[in-house]
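Q: what does this look like with zinc ion bound?
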Amino acid sequence: MKQQNLFGPELLPWEQADQNDLMAAQLVFNRPVETTFDYLVPDHLRDRLRPGQRVLAPFGRGDRLTTGYCVGLERPQRSHGLKIIHSLIDEQPILSDRTLALARWIAERYLCAWGQVLETVVPAGVKNRAGTREILMLELNAEVLSKHPQVKLPAKQAAVLQVLTAAGKPLSQEHVAREAKCGSGPITALRHKQFIRAFPRRSDPRDAEMEAIEKSANLKLNTDQQRVLDRILQALRQQEHTTFLLHGVTGSGKTEVYIRAIQEVVSYGRQAIVLVPEISLTPQTIRRFRSRFASVAVLHSHLSDADRHSHWQQISSGNVQVVVGARSAVFAPTKNLGLIVIDEEHETSFKQDTTPRYHAREVARKRAELEQIPLILGSATPTLESWCRAQAGQDELLQMTRRVEGLPMPPVTIVDVRHDPIRKKGGAIGRALHHFMQQALAADGQIILFLNLRGYSPVLWCRACGQAVKCPHCDVSLTWHKERNEIVCHSCDYHNVPPTSCPGCGDAGIRYLGIGTQRLEQEVRSRFPQAPCIRMDSDSMRKHGSHDLALEAFRKGEARILLGTQMISKGLDFPNVTLVGVIDADTVLHQPDLRSTERTFQLIAQVAGRTGRGPKGGRVLVQTSCPGEPAIVRASEHDFLGFARAELEQRRSMQAPPFEHLARLIIRGPDEQATLAEARRMAETVRAAIATHALPIRVMGPAPAPVARLKGSFRFHFQLSAVQFETLQDLWRRVRDQFKPAADVEFAVDMDPINMR
Ligand code: ADP
Ligand code: ZN
């Protein structure tokens, strides 16, 4: 008999039985859709599904089975029309509740979808369970051996037993073969005789790396370091969640402070994460941590999927004390995190340039808050964002104003090259710099030359029409690479043979102007033929490992001159470098970017930090055509405080960051007019919402982006500016549904943008 439903429309038969007993999972997908979706959990998955697992579920048009992340489980508000989860991908959660919460915060903070963040948080190697290599371990079978005390064995087999006896513990087959100088034959023979046993073990990528490194003792801290460390230890012991801004000049020994703080954390059985710019993950940096801790995982971009997976497992099982890595290491799944350190806090590479466009510093801030642990931000040239927070007392400022061991800061000389005779003839190294290079080489010192442009000539210029030759796909000047004899676009992959005549007007008078690192190298080799030189830029350092080899050669003194791009401006510690030359301080200064002066200051201060690190001292020459530029003058005086004060005043009057938050919308498409029309429509939508809801937000634009064409797409942008980022979030929630752009047009939203191109 049919049951009578007293409370409303009839339920579907399968819903009837146990309406109160149904379970729904909240899923998110890697799509730009900022909602969670309720799905019914079928009975057979009920006891197996937990938040943090991935599932397959029908999604979107055509209900294609799609990977979704389970972010919650609840009794459903309704069951009507809910789709059903198809199957589990993970038997165990791969994400903790805390990581889910952190990812959700990122999605809200950076105006993107939760699922998009989760997709980034979990490395590919973990998602596809990239095979962790198994290695074969060998051990003696004492029982069998004791029954044959006098057995005569061939020499190789005897050697194998010898090696294993001496070790007194299981060894990998590879290791045994190497030590006993044999192949696999004798080992197999011994296994047949049951004299030894073999068993597989998962390889740990840390094994090989850790083995070779000698442990070293603590340095004796100076009073500055001790004072700073004491404060951090206090925070650790009292389990304070405090963010410290450690402003320490270059060479003040910040790393030693981090290490001591981490030792404290490790003594509690907890873990630490140290974020450094990818380019600073040099063997020298890694050695500094490996020589002080038993178990250090290094997460860099060249790891294989399998190694990444293995690291993830080791870290989440609590076997790793210290995780050192670039931006994404902020997501390392540590079991019981005790401290996060971000070295070179000012580095722009901590901001991701694709969705989710998060800043690792802000994510670290949130993670430290969720875990109630301290966060240390270290830099000689903090961002004005961090500096402002410290000044306002939101973060705690710690300072180290002197270099270790009483080493002085190097004197910095600004060289006005506007009238330099050598520069007038097209040379890169002016008269003064040439003189000091000769001097440094004569005194057995080493030299670092910094130039921000790669290639040979950064501009091909037509005398007849006065135009620079541009990439056919981008609004970017082409650079001549002499080594390949090609003209290259540094924004897309375009390259071609150099034109014999101007593509614009057909005139044959094309000139190659400007100086890139290749041309600088040629000049150095011809003017200082006796001094071996190494060039480091992304062209010469394509192969993985070449960067490390070059630095090692320079450290050993095999090269006397190291020249290159940003790659050489960071963190290097070579005591024998007595001269640093900045070939052109103006390249960054003239970029259309609100942070161009800040970047110029940072660059000079950081490059200058590479010298004067040994008993011979050092000096810095900065070539510029703007010798009066305050950022350059203040950097030459090592005056961060003065620079920050003046620049902040400027920013305040411009209502620019750090006083306001920006959101930048980039609209791109293959058709210029259609793209512009979309940009206008979106800006109008935004303006209308701002007016309706009386939101305190300024809108600037739309206008062509500074790089108005990129990879064949026309680019427009507009910017939103507000004192509170929450106001921008509020606006975003109100307008995002109206942002579905026309076909062919795409848009991206960048919260707190750093890249303004
Ligand atoms: P920063 O990161 O502040 O530029 P580093 O941590 O790289 O400085 O330290 C610079 C150099 O000084 C390193 O070679 C380091 O080993 C050394 N150093 C650090 N602390 C001390 C100390 N207390 N006594 C002697 N040398 C030190
Ligand atoms: Zn291009």
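Residues 1-17 have pLDDT under 50 and may be disordered. The longest strand covers residues 698-710.
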